[in-house]
Amino acid sequence: MDSKKVELKKEIAYSEYARLKKLAKNGIIEMIKTAIDYKWQLEINYNNNEVRIVNPHCYFFNSKSKNFLSGFQIKGFSESGNVSNSWKTFAIEKITDCKISTPIVEFTIEKTFNPNYKGYGNTNVIVTKEGMKATDNS
């Protein structure tokens, strides 16, 4: 058998690409919600940079219908240089990969977490001791 690499190239329609991209984003959103519900640590790739380790606390929408994750980053890459133990807000559209850390790490809710923070808007999913709580106060 020939050991040369074979490059396969397949073109797909833009509509199919858009559909697959939407499915991937929906998967990321569901992964975030699951992690919030069970208080599981996430590994996210943001802006195609290195991995960040995040304790997810809130998934929310802003007034422009953009989706965000608010989490407490404990390790990994940071553009600001503030690598660990700080609150970060991530635009869902810029999260290119997301997975639950393995082995699974269950986190405790940060004492500085304010579930009533106005920046989370009227519609959000927050972490609670009992699991996730969805709100719609619009």
How many distinct domains?
A: 1
Strand content: 35-45%
By DSSP, the count of extended strands is 7
Q: Give me the number of helical elements.
A: 1
The biggest sheet, with number of strands, parallel, antiparallel or mixed sense and barrel status, is: 7 strands, antiparallel
What is the string of SSEs from the N terminus onward? Answer: HEEEEEEE
User: What gross morphology would you assign?
Assistant: globular
* Content-based structural category: alpha+beta
Portion of residues within helices: 10-25%
Q: Quote the distance from N terminus to C terminus.
A: 63 Å
What gyration radius follows from the Cα positions, in whole Å? 17 Å
Compute the average pLDDT: 86
Low-confidence stretches: none
Task: Kindly describe this structure.
This protein is an alpha+beta fold and 138 residues long. It has one domain (14-136). Helices cover 18% and strands 36% of the residues. Strands 1, 2, 3, 4, 5, 6 and 7 form a seven-stranded antiparallel β-sheet that branches.
Task: Using brief descriptors, characterize the structure shown.
138 residues, alpha+beta, seven-stranded antiparallel sheet, 1 helix, 7 strands, 36% strand, globular
